[in-house]
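Deliverable D5.2: sample structural annotation.
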Amino acid sequence: MSSENMTLEVVNPNAAGIDIGSRSHWVAVGQNAEDVKEFGVYSEDHEALCQWLTKHKVTSIAMESTGTYWQNLFSSLVAHGFDVILVNGRQTKNIKGKKTDIKDCQWIQKLHCLGLLSNSFLPDSTTDIIRTYSRHRQNILQQSARTVLKMQKYLRLMNLRLDVVVKDIVGETGTKIISAFIAGERSGKKLAENRHYNCRKSEEEIAKALQFNGRADYMFALKHEWETYLHLQQQLNEVDTQIKELLTNIIDKDDNKKQHVATQKTHKRKNKNTLRGTDMNQMAYQYFEGIDLMAIEGVNDATIMSIISEIGLEGIKKFETSKQFTAWLRLAPNNKISGGKVLNHHIPKGSSRLKIALRNAANAIGNLKEGHLSDFFKRICYKKGRTTAINATARKLAVIIWNMLVKEMPYESPTQYLFLDEKRKLGLVKRIKKQIAKFELQPEQLGFAIT
């Protein structure tokens, strides 16, 4: 048998590969030694890199998504008109032999020439700006939570057991008590007078819990943590204002978004960490051009904000099917099949912020007493446990959201979920109808005129 050479088709003939680094970038336009060059990370280096690629008639470029070092270079390449794809490092790591920067960029260039690299998802520029504000806001919330834990620790060490008598030490009652204590008030009875009328503990019990032991060092530390907490809350207000202005500008520029008016969701609970001073129900209804995502049980302001900031309306349309969307979120099992048998079907590791938001919404659905999604959650939970049920419900939510935003399908639950006020109203109507039938009352007897 004669030997035959098998060759791969070159898909991108004028291609380049870039190995991203923190101090320098290695660029390859071919497989020879003279086709590789190192560039710095400054703006003038980016300009020289683009000129060098133009000189070699490069049209398509592949680069690794290494940390945040790729972003400035990516923007410069796109501004110069190059077709740039961002590649996950897992697709380019199986290089043969000793690993070096030169071999890495040549390997990326070879794979890209043969069309063996796929582009990673990137949001549009507007969504990218919203994402920066949103992620910065989440970081501030995390710092604020850590500060509250430190305050709780110092209060406990001073024998001020505020965490026992109030649910949230930075709620309305807790905030007033801490402010008065730092201002110089030491009497437990006086501090307890700041109790809000909705607080479950009595004023006498709160006074018993607030007996200062006189530790000045802990008092000094508490004062600093309280000032830090107030500063972080001020930063949160500023970030919320920026996000609101940005979303408002996006909506005002599009007449198709401005015309929509959402129905009120009085039964949706507001979390204290949600966007302040913004009607997220109306804002989301206009942003998504008349698609009411808040109609889905379990979806709240935080879930909506994650969808807007992490993927956006235009970003989700890049996924051709809901299966691609759930696979990108790593909510679909990665089936490994060999010999016609499924070897394993575990969900891939890794959690994006949108995946975490959908899992939180799924967990909230699991706490509901009734509803179509709640019934689905409980069936899976009974069979395979709560963790699996959260993943399955999060995947189901992702499919519903994709169908609503891409196919513009309204959410229609097979069994409508009724909130507490709606149940009371429905029960009242049933009782009134029963009384009318019992006493055989006529409409005119009730003061209703028939026309």
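Annotation notes: Residues 327 and 333 are 8 Å apart (CA to CA). The mean pLDDT is 89.
The annotation will be released with the project's public dataset once the embargo ends.
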